[in-house]
Amino acid sequence: MNFNPFGALDAATLSHETVLRTEAGDDEDSEQRHRQALELKVANFGTDSVNTAFSYNALGEALLRNDKLAEAEEVLIKAIVIREVKGPAFDAAVSRENLACVCEAQGRWAQAKDMRTRNRENMVCSHYKCPGTTFLMDELKKCSLCKATYYCSIKCQVTDWKARHKRFCTPTEV
User: Fold this and answer.
1) Which fold has domain 1-87?
2) What are all long-range contacts of 133-139, with beta carbons under 8 Å and residues at least 24 apart?
3) Which member of 44, 67, 103, 156 lies 3.0 to 4.6 Å from 127 by CB, making a disulfide possible if both were Cys?
């Protein structure tokens, strides 16, 4: 691995462009740009760096949006392995939440709940656009139907229900 400052800059530029493409609703282009950024980060920082973990997580999110669930699971696991050791607690919680969303989309409710509650002292709200902070599990409310998603407020729960969770939620005894 040879660090190339231009390669690192190219990766950062691609990551920024990807955010813009995602906001524009172009998930396919976003996914491709995340793949390119990941390749550059692996080449410049290695497979186990925090920088690379950021791209694993971002690619996992893009794959989840594109319903490529098996591949999303694979890259999110890589992000979690790195982030739980090297990254801030918030970043690890975000990657766990993203993987829980993959499990949820696959109907694997017990695994979704287990992933979310793996670290009960550092959880994030299940609403994707909730402001970035971690919570203790006791500070969150869980969905009364599936019992596998957790929210910091009624507002986040209602917003996530309309945007995402309603599609997947089923009553369960998890």
Assistant:
1) 1.25.40
2) 133/90, 134/89, 134/90, 134/93
3) 156
